[in-house]
Amino acid sequence: MVRTWDGVPPRRQPTDHEIAFMIQTLFTAFSKIDTEMIRVRYFASLREKLGRIEDTLVAEDISTVSDVWKVVGGGLPLPDHILCAVNMEYADPKTPVKEGDEVAFFPPVTGG
Fold first, then answer.
1. Radius of gyration of the chain (CA)
2. In the chain, how long is the greatest CA-to-CA distance?
3. Cβ(78)–Cβ(95) under 8 Å?
4. Is the pTM higher than 0.85?
5. Distances (CA, A) of 60 to 2, 28, 56, 107
6. Mean pLDDT of the chain
7. Which residues contact residue 108 at a Cβ distance below 8 angstroms, ignoring those fewer than 6 apart?
8. What angle do CA 14, 20, 22 make, to 5 degrees?
9. Which one, of 100, 33, 103, lies nearest residue 71 by Cα?
10. Strand 83-86 vs strand 102-106: parallel, antiparallel, or unpaired?
11. Where do runs of H (alpha helix) occur along the chain?
12. Closest CA to 85 of 75, 95, 77, 76
């Protein structure tokens, strides 16, 4: 038996077909995870208050922005002053959400 310098038998290199199969399997698995989830992002002082940048939620039993907030906000209703967006478009609490959506919450924006 052939051994390498550290005494461990050498491993067989995967074929191109095996590599392609592994890549396809991983891609399919990660694509499925992304599409079955809802990504939730927090901005500005809301991020600091919650102590996190984002969450990922399983989409089942979530149908509106308000439902998303109930999950991430500990069951509390969405405060009136918090703005929200779905897929980078301003939204209200009754806006529907689905698998693969990104929901963002942020405090009112002021300018000057």
1. 22
2. 75
3. no
4. no
5. 53, 20, 12, 27
6. 83
7. 81, 83
8. 75
9. 103
10. antiparallel
11. 16-35, 44-50, 65-72
12. 95
- Dihedral Cα 29, 30, 33, 36, nearest 10 deg: -90
Domains of the chain (ranges; CATH) run 37-106 (3.10.20.30)
- Express each pLDDT in 62-112 by its tens digit: 999 999 999 999 888 888 899 999 999 999 999 999 999 999 999 887 665
Length of the chain: 112
- Identify the pLDDT of residue 98: 94
Give CA–CA dist 39/55, Å, rounded. 6
pLDDT band at 8 (very low <50, low <70, confident <90, very high): low
